[in-house]
Amino acid sequence: MAQKDTMADALMLVGGGIVGAGLALLLAPKTGKDTRKDIVRMARTVGSKTDKVVHEFADNVSELADTIGEKASSILSSEVDLAPESKKELLAAIERGQVKLEKQRQRLARLIG
């Protein structure tokens, strides 16, 4: 739950920064042509940085999912015999993780459009 709040806070901070920068450009004492150039330049910069952050986030989530899958496979196929309850708990934890990842995927898909 804390991670969800942190992500929402981070997105709100970025969004507020973008809106604030846009307003600053619009209210600056420049000609319309200069202001439009500044807005285009800022939009390209923000878009580039946003793409980078999204790709890094996606890579991190993918790496996390791979690591969890490898660890789970290792535990389930190891020589150590796990109690049936432990196996059930492990499978339940993996399923909860999958549900959370799917919710984040859907949320990101809504943000992208």
UniProtKB/TrEMBL annotation:
User: Where on the tree of life does the source sit, at the highest rank?
Assistant: Bacteria
Which chain regions cross the lipid bilayer? 6-28
Q: Which InterPro entries match?
A: Desiccation-related_membrane, YtxH
The UniProt keyword set, sorted, is: Membrane, Transmembrane, Transmembrane helix
Q: What is this protein called?
A: YtxH domain-containing protein
